[in-house]
Amino acid sequence: MTPPILRPLSAGEILDTSFSLYRRHFGALATVALACTGIPLLFRLFLEAGGGLFSSAALFLLYLMSLVVLSLVATGATVFIVSESYLGRPISAREALARTTPHLVRILVCSVLTMLVVFLGFMLLVIPGIILAVGLALSIPAVVLESGTSASGALSRSWELTRGSRWRIFGLGLTLLVLAYVPVVAVTALFAMMLPQVAVGTFGPASVPSIVALAIGGLVQMFLYPLFYCVLTVAYYDLRVRKEGFDLELLASSLQPA
Question: Does pTM surpass 0.70?
Fold first, then answer.
């Protein structure tokens, strides 16, 4: 296999590469999103239509469990799809889902640890929270793609990789927020203005417009989610190329005799 041409990328090139990967492998990414995050969305819509989010404790618990577990699966599978494509060896959604299963516990622990650390940072002051969020942004790609890395080790790994590049990572996140999420918020707000009676039925059955609004918001979020991890995965490899000569390592491994 011919190794991919890897080199240090500018922030603009990271975004361009991420959007390109997202478009090129939209089918696999969308399949993962629909298979994983679509199920919790259906649970949510069923609960809202049937009497409110908390109308059934058992169904609400089932909804939360499916949301957490399947979101972790979607995250791992998305990182695998983007990573393998970036390295020139695309995989299917089914293969990505299968490869994610052994990593579920580590992804869960890593996610919880990251949220706790960032939360404590925001409890101290806003600025430490932002610094921690940026410094630990690559924890999930690290724990998924580096099989020997523990959940806590992934946090340290991300912190070291982002050292000296945190302003750039912050800028990437802010740019992605403006390019992807702000238009979505605008569309959602416009929809809410057109249907002022929309109200999510937390303690009572939701109206039809509420269900429609919830479904649209969930679908939009579902397809934006992979783009976020496209950027993080490309940024992860970019920092490995810059700091560890990953491009030379990959080239050397491809030249070794079988």
Answer: yes
